[in-house]
Amino acid sequence: MEQKKLWLGIGILLAIVVVIVVVIAVVRPTKEDSTEGMSTSDGAESTSDMSSDGEDTIMPVDAGIYVERVDDLSEDFINGVDISSYLALSNSGVKFYDFEGNELDDQGFFDLLADCGINYVRIRVWNDPYDESGNGYGGGNNDLATAVQLGQWATSAGMKVMIDFHYSDFWADPAKQRAPKAWENYSVEEKAAALEAFTRESLLTLLDADVNVGMVQIGNETNGKVCGESDWNNMNLLFGAGGGAVRSVAEERDQEILVVLHFADPETEGRYADYAAKLAAGNVDYDIFASSYYPYWHGSIDNLQSVLGQIASTYDKKVMVAETAWNYTYADGDGQSNTIGADTRGIDREYDVSVQGQAMEIRTVIDAVAGIENGIGVFYWEPAWIPVQVYDPEADNSAQILAQNQEIWEREGSGWANACAGEYDAEAKEWYGGSAVDNQALFDFTGHPLESLKTFRYVRTGTNAAYVDNGEKPALTQEGTVVSDADNLLPDPGFEESDGSMWIISDETGSTDIEVNGTNNRSGSACLHFWNDKDFSYTVEQTISLEAGTYTFGGFLQGGDAGRDDVFELYVINGEETLTAEGGVTGWQNWSETVVDGIVLKESGEITVGIRVEATAGAWGAWDDFYLCRQVAGD
Ligand code: CA
After folding, report:
1. 386 Cα–ligand 1 center, Å
2. Which of 186-195, 270-279, 598-607 has the lowest mean pLDDT?
3. What is the rounded CA–CA span in Å between residue 137 and residue 146?
4. Would you say the C-alpha torsion 109, 114, 115, 117 has a positive or negative sign?
5. Do 480 and 557 contact (CB within 8 A), yes or no?
6. Among 257, 251, 309, which Cα is nearest to 287's?
7. pTM exceeds 0.85 for this model
8. Which of 516, 591, 522, 597 minimizes the C-alpha distance to 554?
9. Spatial distance between the Cα atoms of 320 and 82, rounded to a whole number of angstroms
């Protein structure tokens, strides 16, 4: 008995000690914050402290958003932003403010970026973004003179500059790589000579204007094409010509300037490995293999880290993310619809649509790149491309504001494209106007900075704030709609039951591999796989009898290698009416849901539900888990 009491006493004592130790451990950082980590508005808060053993200890700072510190982030890790549209916005009368609400002049705007931990600025350059009459194509009218002005402000703020040559007169991306007007009839050798001269002269102009250029990008998102050339030997010749111009200028000026190549769509299996091998085979001299990474299009962060890591180690190249972004709202601020909305295909569920969500996204990408040996930096794309005037569709004067915005966009080039750009860019013929990314900015619609802008500084210390989930998740999630078998009115919704024979497949191309198999199921034992090495189109549908009521039709798709304009559509034919919803492929086993809502049958009858695909050669994927269910009142 006595021994038991003794052991009990020791046990209680131990428990008390443990509790005290835990309490101290939990309370201690909070105490230190109040004295060491006071957040101040000028960006100069004390974040380090000499501890007793002389080591520099970094303390998390007080903040309104939660940011986990990125460990071992090197001092020179690039925390960059692309602010190419800024001058056009400034010319449009757009005002920006600091965190205290003070209006900033142009230099003040760049100083604010630097205060927020941004140390690099990316600026795109188009050769001749003007029509014959000298009207700008818009998108910031980013010619060389614009880059000089932006570069000088960035340099004065202590930041370095990356010049992003598109070698085009307007937007270059995987779908568009048109040569500049002046070069369109050139042979590839003539293009190489012109590209080298343009790169050299532009770079000298920038350096002579005291712009601190540290990197030069040879082409933008050059996925299998650059400057109108799609043969890799020709592409390698052009990459080499641009890189060679950078090397010679850097040597003459005795300044380190790195050569960057930039690609997109890391989610496609083998794409980057293939590109890197082709560059190596052509002996292209470059320093950095850069990728775009938009989470809603470009697969998982682990995949990004893996494919970039492989190139870094295989070819001894530096790697980085040249563009990324995330939206804090689904709202549109200027009357020009945004690229990313609630119905965006493949929108990733990992981040909230909020300022906190932006910080999480930025921090995640920085952490992933920093985790790669030779991972050198991340650039956020166009964090300041906000409305020229805030447009509220509900306001009494909405029509007037929209008309004024359209006039300002056209006059100053502050929208993504002007009407006159249609002569050069087919897409801009139909679709031109204002900012398509105002909901992904790190400033609100009126030019006040969001706290997510400070993420670049916060990643170096971490913050003490609690993570607050605002509950506004992206509309479409990886899990997607869960429909019980009892509620699902669709026969053979996942292709298991009848080996697909309930579905009518119409292969319009004739040669498409459309097959029910078990290779990539989202659930169950089967899915509907498709692939073709030629451009192809097909439909798959069922006709079903339903009672009067309101219904929802949805399904899931995964796949890749599709063109930007490819169609992956769900449709519902209900009497005279056809309803559709656009889906898309965003990577292997990255299932995205597409939903046709509000299918109203006034009386009982038949409807046809189906999918339509019109895709470019090489696209592949699989459909699974369709559902057709009755909407209950109140849904
Ligand atoms: Ca907009």
Report:
1. 8
2. 598-607
3. 14
4. positive
5. no
6. 257
7. no
8. 597
9. 14
Work out whether the CA dihedral 198, 200, 202, 203 comes out positive or negative.
Answer: positive
**From ligand 1's centre to the CA of 581, what distance in Å?**
22
pLDDT at residue number 323: 98
- Whether 410 sits among the annotated catalytic residues: the reply is no
Q: Which of 323, 361, 412, 593 is catalytic?
A: 323
For residue 333, report the distance from its CA to the centre of ligand 1, in Å: 5
Does the CA dihedral 100-105-109-114 come out positive or negative? negative
CA-CA-CA-CA torsion sign (170, 175, 179, 185): negative
Q: What is the pLDDT of residues 28-74, one digit of tens each?
A: 433 333 333 333 334 444 445 444 444 567 899 999 999 999 999 99
Bigger pLDDT: 133 or 479? 133
- Average confidence (pLDDT) over 524-552: 90
The pair of structure tokens assigned to 179 is: 């040569």
Closest among 206, 217, 73 to 150, alpha carbons compared: 206
Options 196, 221, 410, 614, the catalytic residue = 221
Sign of CA dihedral 248, 252, 254, 255: negative
323 catalytic residue (yes or no): yes
**How far does residue 385's CA lie from ligand 1's centre (Å)?**
9
Residue 96 amino acid letter: F
What are the pLDDT digits (tens) for 442-478?
Answer: 999 999 999 999 999 999 999 998 877 665 544 333 4
For ligand 1, the distance from its centroid to the CA atom of residue 347, given in whole angstroms, is 18
